[in-house]
Specification:
The chain is an alpha/beta fold. The chain has 18 helices and 16 strands. It has a six-stranded parallel β-sheet. The chain has a three-stranded antiparallel β-sheet with strand order 6-5-7.
Length: about 425
């Protein structure tokens, strides 16, 4: 054991928080793969199970990157989908045709070695294949079985297809994102999928903690609609509407006025002057100190009541200022404000790059291509290792490792499973 300055060093290399967790990943599309990606980033051994006939559809999502840079059409076998790179990293890739009659036997062997199954099929699909939660809890009573679906496992027949835009429309977020007297606006990010992924990870980690205490696993059921709508309910939209206030306020947050997005000479800026101190400092920056004594804007409640007039005054000032100059003045006065950036500028921000919250997209054969950045793990631990350092696996790349080393199948059995189209 090393000794430093006469003091024995008892520290050990940092380990990943979920190093001792094995996850069977049956997910496709977005919400489920992002959830298992987060678990992989936290150190879980995630075994991505794909159909040998084609694999995860994200593998064929444009754009791609590889030799020659980023492209909209794959022209080389080793081109990797940017989408697949973002969702499949740090996972072991195996194939298993769950529709084959013998697949249940093999999947059961995997479940015996696992702590968690994660899936986002249409409710009932895996039950029909004989690998749903009730069947697998008989195989491994400790198993935690996480499911993400559009409307929950109890939705029943007739539910619409749970695409992100459909969930946004039903949740209310699309309505509140529009400007007053204008159509609703779809949030540019797939917010319903990503919200469900976060709740899914929270749910399964809580269930894993309970299973280790009790020895009994459970089914964790997350609804995309419920996850997103719960956040809508956490805001004061309904109460504001009862008070006769507009719910759809576009770039402004009426109840915090002045708080919103304003046009500058060369772009847009976000200003959050929601307290009396911030608002009065804003008036000074605008060279309108008189507004602090104006009965329309003197207090927060007055500003909320007269937010349209206040927004118009701020907008007239901001249009005369270059965005960088306006932000410099506002920040110098201690007012929360920022320039509205495009995605490229945002993901290349040195602050998030330094913290590995966004990470370079490195092709396993050609290295970094066109300086494209991928999703990192925006969690920092003082004494744990976490993050992404492995490219997405090829289809079935780890069949030998998982079936041979983990399950103990011999080479002849693996070969026969492959010949029969089972793996």
């Amino acid at each position: 054991m090393p000794v430093c300055d006469g003091i024995m060093d008892t520290s050990a290399p940092a380990e990943a928080p979920l190093k001792d967790v094995t996850v069977l990943d049956l997910t496709v599309a977005l919400a489920g793969p992002v959830a298992t990606l987060l678990l992989a980033g936290l150190g879980a051994r995630v075994i991505k199970i794909e159909n040998p006939a084609g694999g995860d559809p994200s593998r064929d999502n444009a754009p791609y990157f590889g030799r020659g840079g980023v492209k909209l059409v794959r022209d080389r076998p080793d081109d990797i989908s940017v989408t697949a790179f973002n969702r499949l990293r740090n996972k072991l890739g195996i194939t298993l045709n769950l529709k084959h009659p013998r697949a249940r036997e093999i999947f059961s062997d995997l479940v015996r070695k696992a702590d968690l199954v994660f899936e986002n099929f249409t409710p009932g699909t895996l039950e029909e294949l004989g690998v749903g939660y009730e069947a697998m809890r008989q195989v491994n009573p400790r198993i935690v079985y996480g499911s993400i679906s559009g409307f929950g496992a109890d939705a029943g027949p007739g539910a619409p297809k749970a695409l992100d835009t459909v969930i946004q429309a039903l949740s209310g977020i699309m309505y509140v994102s529009g400007a007053e007297n204008e159509p609703p606006v779809r949030v540019g990010l797939t917010i319903a999928d990503l919200t469900a992924a976060l709740f899914g990870v929270i749910g399964v980690l809580a269930a894993l903690h309970q299973a280790r205490r009790t020895g009994i696993g459970q089914h964790v059921d997350v609804s995309m609609l419920g996850a997103l709508t719960s956040f809508i309910a956490g805001e004061a939209y309904e109460a504001m509407e009862k008070c006769g206030a507009a719910v759809r306020t576009g770039p402004s947050v009426q109840r915090l006025a002045p708080f919103g997005i304003y046009a500058a000479k060369d772009g847009h800026i976000a200003i959050c002057a929601y307290t009396d101190i911030f608002a009065h400092r804003l008036f000074e920056v605008m060279r309108r100190k008189d507004l602090a004594a104006d009965e329309r804007f003197r207090t927060r409640d007055m500003r909320v009541r007269n937010y349209r007039e206040l927004d118009a005054l701020i907008g007239r000032w901001s249009k005369t200022e270059p965005a960088s100059d306006a932000i410099a003045k506002l920040n110098s006065a201690g007012i929360p404000a920022a320039q509205v950036r495009d995605p490229k500028s945002a993901v290349h921000d040195p602050r998030v790059v330094a913290r590995e919250e966004t990470v370079p997209m490195v092709h396993p054969k050609y290295g970094m291509v066109d300086e494209i950045y991928a999703m990192g793990l925006p969690i920092r631990f003082s004494d744990a290792k976490a993050g992404f350092d492995q490219p997405p696996p090829g289809l079935g790349e780890h069949n030998q490792r998982v079936y041979g080393e983990i399950l103990g199948y011999d080479a002849d059995r693996i070969a026969k499973l492959r010949e029969q189209g089972i793996i």
